[in-house]
Amino acid sequence: MKNNIKLDAHCEMLMQQFRDLRPVLEHLSNEAYELMKSTLSEQGIYVTAIEHRVKTEKSLAGKLELKGAKYKSIDDITDLVGIRVITFYTDEVDKVAAIAKNLFDVDWQESVDKRKKHNLDSFGYNSLHFICRLKTGGPRFELQMRTALQHVWSTIEHDVGYKGEVKIPNDYKRQLSRLAGMLELADDEFSRIRIELNDYRRQIFSLVKSGHLGEVPLSAGSFRNYLDTHPFDNLNKRIAAVNQAEIYSVSLMSFLPLLESFGMETLGDVQRFIDENSEDAYQLALAQLAVTDLDILSSGTGLLNLCAVYVLKQGGGRDGLKSVFDSIKGEDDANGTLADMILEQAATLPFMKNLSI
Question: Torsion angle of alpha carbons 8, 9, 13, 16, nearest 10°?
Answer without folding.
Answer: 70
